[in-house]
Design a protein that fits this description.
19 strands; 6-stranded mixed sheet; 39% helix; inorganic pyrophosphatase (n-terminal core); Diaminopimelate Epimerase, Chain A, domain 1; alpha/beta; 20 helices; OB fold (Dihydrolipoamide Acetyltransferase, E2P); globular; 3 domains; 5-stranded parallel sheet
Length: 558
């Protein structure tokens, strides 16, 4: 359902125009405060989708995947035999979670297997030389997880050598991919499953009641790790993350959380206290410690691995921050950013941060030891990775990814050609200022909101509704509330590199955080604000705050 919007007063507020009787009827049915019903309307949530997308999501099955006859036959034949299987997975959280799901599943059935993880030197995709030692050990079947979409040539070679592979991936599948000879488990339709989520769907018919919470927990980690949409089956996985039944099987994850909080964890604790540390080993070099943490059930072993992850994450943070600051100081000089000495393990993270800050599509790349250029693209506005790949399709480029993000690798001699082409095609479309996700000052109207902030925003009733819908994120955007004619009384440091703005409005005093210190409302001036509520873990308690996402002086443009 897509409600109409209307402009109200002054420079204008873009507010959904929804019949009040419908709002209050659904408020009773859903046991939600009316203001949160308005938030759901804005996101196209109707009574049917509220149940299946938000309130009571169900685990994924074959209906979430593409054609499954071939993959199911392949997997059933594997389980019916004692043939050893090689699990070959990518190095990020989605990849190691996929590998851990398969490894725990096979170990429980005493089926012989081994796990091979890509490392930072491998780049994107499957590398046949790394498989050869396992062939010599007698491995003749491979499950490729969270990669393979961009490795059709290598898969075809392995198939011709009598090494059948099953691919579980969620990345974009290029035209001509050999589905007829390589079984593929891939999300279909509206499904936004990760590779670990797709792996869960593959093995779900075989799971015991004791196994299922563990596998759903691992898939939940991948949802956060890949920033997948927080709706439908992915929401089911997220709910599994905060269940004691799932967490109890992973003492290492519990230890990571305990280093941050002693209270009951919430989803954002996993986002900030677990995911970066699981990603750190792969970004530095070898992801094996993170995978081992997901496999072990011993506390003493977990403690040793957690110490390793903390040290590696510290190094990752340092390298990422240095590169981020170097690029920021230079400023935007084209959208193709390259330096032969940049560390490849943090390029994706830095590209994401720079893309968000500049609100532009960027490529951040470096030179590998094999004299190829490798880098990451993060898309904004109207740019999409498949279209970018089309602009480069006549060049010998290896790449793959999602619609909004991807990786490229190509020979050094093509550096100038690729740079010229990308600088021509990136950010060629219209610039949408309202997609920044950060504050916009007085340069655009109307202000788009879900509803006006109610006077009872401090009341538990308001925050109870927030918790019922939490978490917000990709695919289920954070709520936006309007604050009219807020007189700015004070701006001061608020911690976490944010400032706090104190204001007075028709319902008394209020305060909200500002993420961008270079774009703040003017002291003493009345401004219309758009704010979003957030729950922020602060030590052993939860802090309820508001963050300014837009502001505009009252009377501007009227």
């Amino acid at each position: 359902m897509e409600p109409e919007s209307t402009r109200r007063g002054g420079q204008g507020w873009d507010v959904p125009d929804i019949p009040e009787e419908e709002i209050y009827a659904l408020s009773k049915i859903w046991s939600l405060d009316p203001v949160w019903v308005r938030v759901l309307f804005r996101r196209g949530i109707d009574p049917e989708s509220f149940v299946k997308d938000i309130q009571d999501p169900v685990p994924p099955g074959d209906h979430c995947l593409g054609p499954m006859d071939f993959p199911r036959r392949w997997f059933h034949d594997l389980l019916s035999s004692a043939e050893p299987i090689l699990i070959y997975a990518d190095l990020d959280v989605d990849g190691i979670s996929s590998a851990a799901i398969l490894a725990r599943f096979l170990a429980h059935r005493h089926h012989p297997f081994s796990v091979l993880l890509t490392n930072r030197e491998d780049g994107r995709g499957l590398r046949i030389p790394r498989i050869r030692p396992y062939q010599e050990q007698g491995f003749r079947r491979i499950i490729v997880a969270d990669m393979g979409a961009s490795s059709s040539s290598a898969l075809t070679v392995l198939q011709s050598e009598g090494i059948p592979c099953l691919v579980v991936d969620h990345h974009l599948i290029p035209e001509g991919w050999p589905r007829e000879i390589v079984p593929l488990v891939h999300p279909s339709g509206k499904s936004a499953l990760t590779s670990a989520g797709s792996t869960y769907a593959l093995i779900r018919p075989y799971l015991t009641p004791d196994e299922e919470p563990q596998m759903a927990f691992l898939a939940g980690l991948s949802v956060l790790g890949d920033r997948a949409p927080l709706l439908r089956e992915n929401r089911y996985f997220i709910q599994s993350l905060v269940s004691e039944e799932g967490l109890s099987a992973f003492p290492g994850i519990r230890l990571l959380l305990k280093r941050k909080v002693r209270r009951t964890p919430i989803v954002s604790d996993f986002s900030f206290g677990v995911i970066p540390l699981l990603n750190a080993p792969g970004r530095i070099g070898d992801p094996r410690p993170a995978f081992d943490l997901l496999m072990t059930t011993e506390v003493t072993v977990s403690e040793k691995i957690v110490n390793i992850l903390w040290e590696q994450n510290r190094k990752r943070q340092e390298m990422e921050w240095l590169l981020y600051e170097e690029i920021r100081r230079k400023g935007p000089d084209g959208w193709f950013l390259f330096d032969k000495d940049w560390f490849p393990g943090v390029l994706g993270r830095v590209a994401h941060r720079i893309s968000e800050e500049w609100n532009r599509t960027v490529f951040v790349g470096t030179l590998t030891e094999t004299l190829t250029v490798r880098g990451s693209i993060r898309c904004r506005n109207d740019d999409r990775f498949p279209e970018i790949m089309k602009a480069l399709m006549d060049l010998p480029i290896h790449g793959g990814g999602h619609p909004m993000a991807g990786g490229l690798e190509f020979p050094l001699e093509l550096l100038s050609e690729v740079s010229d082409r990308l600088n021509q095609v990136l950010n060629a479309g219209p610039f949408h200022d309202d997609q920044t996700g950060g504050p916009i000052s007085a340069n655009k109207a109307p202000l788009k909101i879900d509803a006006f902030l109610p006077a009872y925003f401090r009341n538990p009733v308001f925050w109870d509704g927030y918790f019922k819908l939490f978490p917000f994120g990709e695919g289920f955007s954070s709520p936006q509330f309007g604050v009219r004619r807020a007189r700015i009384e004070r701006i001061e440091e608020g911690g976490s590199r944010m400032q706090v703005c104190s204001y007075r409005w028709r319902h008394g005093s209020g305060r909200a955080f500002l993420r961008d210190p270079s774009d703040t409302p003017v002291l003493g001036q009345e401004s219309d604000l758009v704010v979003t509520p957030e729950i922020r873990g602060k030590g052993d308690y939860l802090e309820r705050i508001f963050v300014v996402t837009q502001h505009i002086p009252v009377g501007f443009g009227s």
